[in-house]
Write a structure and sequence with these properties.
87 residues; mainly alpha; 2 helices; 0% strand; cell projection; Flagellar biosynthetic protein FliQ; cilium
Length: 87
């Protein structure tokens, strides 16, 4: 494998990782913002109060997006294997 092919493979792997992680990260960020707002309004500053809703929201997002995520992973893996012998 030559250098441009390796760079292209690394770039596509990083983009796939970003796209796959994005739904959970966005849901975690939104849940963190909502919990932070509720903590500021109620003045309850406990770490576990912020942790549990974020974990539950991210787990729900993972379950909801799992078919799409698996499709993306299979497409990326197929692309890698198809182009492995070409370079």
């Amino acid at each position: 494998m030559d250098a441009p092919a390796a760079i292209d493979l690394c770039r596509s792997a990083m983009m796939a990782a970003v796209v796959i992680a994005m739904p959970m990260l966005l849901v975690g960020m939104a849940a963190g913002l909502a919990v932070g707002l509720m903590q500021a309004l109620t003045q309850v500053q406990d770490q576990t109060v912020a942790f549990v809703p974020k974990v539950l929201a991210m787990a729900a997002a993972l379950v909801a997006c799992l078919p799409w995520l698996l499709t993306r992973l299979v497409e990326f893996t197929r692309h890698v294997f198809e182009n492995a012998g070409m370079h």
